[in-house]
Task: structure prediction
Amino acid sequence: MAAETDVMEKVVALTKRRGFVFPTAEIYGGMSGCYDYGPVGAELRRLIRDDWWRTMVTAREDVVGLESSILMPARVWEVSGHVAGFHDPLVDCKKCKGRFRADTLADARCPERPSKRPGECGGELTEPRQFNMMFKTVAGPVQEEGATVYLRPETAQGIFVNFKNVLESTRVRVPFGIAQIGKAFRNEIVVRQFVFRLRELEQMECEFFCVPGTEDAWFEHWKAYRLRWWTELGVRPSRLRLRPHDKEELAHYARGCVDVEYRFPFGWKEVEGIASRTDFDLKAHQTGSGKGLAYLDETTKQWVVPFVVEPSAGVDRCFLTVLVDAYEEETKANGETRVVLHLHPKLAPTQVGVYPLVKKDGMPERARAIHARLATVLRAAYDEQATVGKRYARMDEVGTPFGVTVDSQTLVDGTVTVRDRDTMAQERVHEDALLGHLAERIRTWKRADDGATA
Ligand code: ATP
Result:
């Protein structure tokens, strides 16, 4: 476990060094629960979102997209149950003033004596009290109750309140889903484990509306469909599992819930939740708003409030999963260590680096021309700084799967060296065949260990 914790520290250091993640407002000392994503990290997140959107919306005939507002009237959150129930139990240590979630004390550490759990250090803990995790603010200049708004703690409610709009303005018919990606805000009591638990987070959620009675079949469909997405991102199947919730964990209205969990260095943790939510949300908003949220069933000619199955994943947790899973420290044949991210090429912020061996003899011009051609199709970068060895090391650390080097032989016969990030093997390919060669290797890429090992 010590070595695994070490991996986490190394991943955090790498993300800072290479421009994936920076502490928010670092020059002012940072802000807990918030992180900024640097140039490479922003690109990785965009690719994660795009892949989710492609799988959930573009590739399906039965799901459409939505972008709802982050700010919503307080009424929405009263009706959804969040004002009364979006709580975590909070306890304080009377001695060190540390704050902890009462339900995760077993995983917590005393800030003053990290070898002890809270309460084991001689400090007395207060009785748990409920702490609402929604950020509350006021719209407009007058601080009156009517203007209270909440930053959404999940994107789902924005979907429910638009159910009728989507049904009436598009050709979708039940069963269908509405998907959205967007920021959500949770005033988490304890923020730890880097971007795993944030106060400003991003979610990728789909509410799938189905005919009552068919929800169990759709629940099975979504469990399989979503787990496959995670493995198709290149994440090792041996580190992924589906964990069904116990009866006590289930919300009172839920028929079932399963978490997709990833085995992080700090244990198995939820990266996505898939919940069978019955008609609870739509019925609550129907009552709360006074607007009918049923659809007309063409066969029975009855008005029906659909049941809902919800797959809900976090962009930030997916980002961390992909990085931790891809990270490897290897000892090369010459005894040197190299750090490499075995990212799936579809998620690599840069897919190919193009390098002139030296900055003379026309090599930079030739390399720039090759780069320009590749960049029409691939995420390509041109780099002529430092030695080729250093450029390869950088490429490995940001997970660039292919490096193309222009050398003196290129000037003679038009071939370049293609270096593979994963195996470090090099082969010569003619520049005219390069684009096709790389496209094929990206298409057929498989992780070297094929996910078999932990
Ligand atoms: P946890 O039990 O870890 O607090 P949760 O059950 O409250 O998570 P959900 O409400 O099911 O999480 O949210 C769906 C997804 O949103 C989670 O699977 C996770 O990927 C992401 N998510 C939730 N809370 C956070 C957070 N504080 N920081 C980052 N991602 C989060």
About this structure: The chain has a mean pLDDT of 93.
